[in-house]
């Protein structure tokens, strides 16, 4: 069963499409855009909460991870994503009995509602009820705007051959939930925002440390998760620039390396996250800030491309 490639569309067609009401399956776009609870019936919302609670109770055993601790926290979504392995997925594809849906179906249907419940509980999201219920979305207002999060589709993508074993469910949760709702004003200020840090023209791991000690002594460490000296050298930096963000609350280290531009975000405790954008070696990339927005402009095949994000990360 597991030899055929499983794309999100293939998973949907094989395991979930047979469960849809015929009219919803005939026009999925309409079903996904239609409010199935226009009167705000609390009983329907209670069904969503109940399904999420069932998942929290039963999923640790199904995942063979009894210490998973699905406590509706953001951290629990990251623990859950790490448990979604290819070996487990393939095991869930086997139907328990003839003509019965495999365990994968139950886990995805309830798991989508569990992740949605975490957004509602921790970040003020609002359920947008759909038919069938596992198609329900969560509307989230944040500094990045208003977004309707399609949690069921996050699961299909995370369990596809391209993404399984990569923790992409957690990546989406971080990108679309945690980062937009993050309160960066709570970060400690590293240094005055008008301080200018010169370019590091000769890049080596030890020279980066000396450069930071000389120009940003308030940053005592790059943190345990900053790239190792070996990995850092492999990136092949030509130079590094340094930009203070958010009133001096974060430091962005960025520069051109092999095949593109690397960026590293650090707060007062050190490394927070990194990003990489493929780019031509010329012209130089640009970093721009405007309010809460950070823009990274690179050239690809001679054409400018702009990557826009909140200044505290991707």
Keywords:
alpha+beta; 2 domains
pLDDT averaged residue by residue:
95
**Total strand count, please?**
10
What percentage of residues falls in helices of 4 or more residues? 25-40%
Sequence of secondary-structure elements: HHHHHHHEEEHHHHEEEEEEE
Class by helix and strand content?
A: alpha+beta
Plain-language structure description:
The chain is an alpha+beta fold. The protein folds into 2 domains: 8-181, no CATH class; 187-310, no CATH class. The chain contains 11 helices and 10 strands. The strands form 3 sheets. A 4-stranded antiparallel beta sheet has the order 4-5-6-7, with no helix packed on it. The two termini are 37 Å apart. The model has no long low-confidence stretch (mean pLDDT 95).
Helix-strand blueprint:
Blueprint: H1 8-16, H2 22-26, H3 28-33, H4 42-62, H5 74-82, H6 86-92, H7 103-123, E1 126-128, E2 137-142, E3 145-149, H8 151-158, H9 168-181, H10 205-215, H11 229-234, E4 241-245, E5 250-257, E6 260-267, E7 270-278, E8 286-290, E9 293-300, E10 303-310
Antiparallel strand pairs: 1-2, 2-3, 4-5, 5-6, 6-7, 8-9, 9-10
């Amino acid at each position: 069963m597991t030899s055929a490639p499983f794309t999100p569309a293939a998973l949907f067609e094989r395991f979930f499409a047979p469960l849809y009401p015929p009219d919803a399956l005939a026009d999925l776009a309409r079903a996904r855009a239609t409010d199935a609870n226009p009167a705000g019936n609390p009983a329907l919302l209670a069904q969503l909460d109940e399904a999420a609670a069932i998942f929290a109770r039963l999923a640790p055993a199904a995942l063979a991870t009894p210490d998973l601790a699905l406590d509706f926290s953001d951290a629990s979504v990251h623990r859950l994503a790490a448990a979604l392995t290819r070996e487990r997925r393939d095991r869930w594809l086997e139907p328990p009995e003839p003509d019965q849906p495999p365990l994968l179906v139950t886990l995805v249907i309830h798991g989508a509602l569990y992740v949605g419940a975490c957004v509602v509980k921790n970040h003020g999201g609002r359920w947008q009820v759909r038919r069938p219920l596992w198609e329900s979305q969560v509307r989230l207002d944040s500094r990045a705007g208003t977004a309707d999060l399609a949690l069921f589709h996050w699961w299909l993508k995370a369990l596809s051959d391209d993404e399984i074993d990569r923790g992409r469910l957690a990546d989406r949760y971080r990108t679309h939930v945690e980062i937009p709702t993050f309160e960066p004003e709570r970060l400690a200020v590293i240094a005055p925002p008008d301080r200018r840090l010169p370019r590091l023209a000769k890049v080596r791991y030890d020279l980066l440390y000396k450069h930071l000690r000389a120009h940003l002594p308030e940053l005592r460490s790059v943190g345990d998760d900053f790239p190792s000296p070996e990995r850092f050298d492999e990136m092949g930096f030509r130079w590094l620039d340094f930009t203070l963000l958010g009133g001096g609350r974060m430091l962005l280290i960025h520069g051109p390396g092999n095949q593109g531009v690397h960026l590293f975000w650090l707060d007062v405790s050190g490394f927070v996250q990194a990003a990489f954008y493929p780019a031509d070696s010329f012209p130089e990339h640009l970093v721009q800030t405007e309010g809460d927005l950070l823009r990274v402009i690179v050239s690809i095949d001679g054409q400018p491309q702009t990557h826009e994000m909140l200044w505290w990360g991707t």
